Amino acid sequence: MVIKKLHDMGMRSEHAYTAALASIGLTVAVWAGSLKMEPGTGLARADRWGLFVGEWAPTFFGLGLALSHYEQQDGTLTASGADVRDLHRNVG
């Protein structure tokens, strides 16, 4: 199983969630950078670069969810109930 292998290698759900959030920021940076670095290619090229990097975020979020479920079953999930409530309060 891929998730077990990743978990055994030290990857945790927090790492995947952090990568997802970073990829969202990177999407904006790549899009803006492409507009400035390649002014002759137009908006379409910048959009393609932004979409390419932007597709990483859902993959990382999905991986984070899978790792989180594995951690719950494995007993290695370290978030307390208060941490989870705080997270839901801040997100929603």
Can you offer a commentary on this structure?
By secondary structure, this protein is mainly alpha-helical. The chain has one domain. It is 82% helix and 0% strand. It has five helices and no strands. The protein has helices at 2-8, 13-37, 42-54, 56-74, 81-91. The protein is elongated. The model has no long low-confidence stretch (mean pLDDT 83).
List the helices and strands and how they pair.
Blueprint: H1 2-8, H2 13-37, H3 42-54, H4 56-74, H5 81-91
Helix pairs in contact: 1-4, 2-3, 2-4
Short descriptors:
mainly alpha; 92 residues; single chain
What is the percentage of strand-forming residues?
under 5%
Say how many strands there are: 0
- Average pLDDT, rounded to a whole number, is 83
| Helix content class | over 70%
Compute the number of structural domains: 1
Give a short account of the largest sheet: none
- Total helix count? 5
H and E string: HHHHH
Measured distance between first and last alpha carbons: 33 Å
Outline: elongated
Class from secondary-structure proportions = mainly alpha
Instruction: Please state the CA-atom Rg, rounded to the nearest Å.
Output: 17 Å
Low-confidence stretches at least 5 residues in length (pLDDT < 50)?
A: none
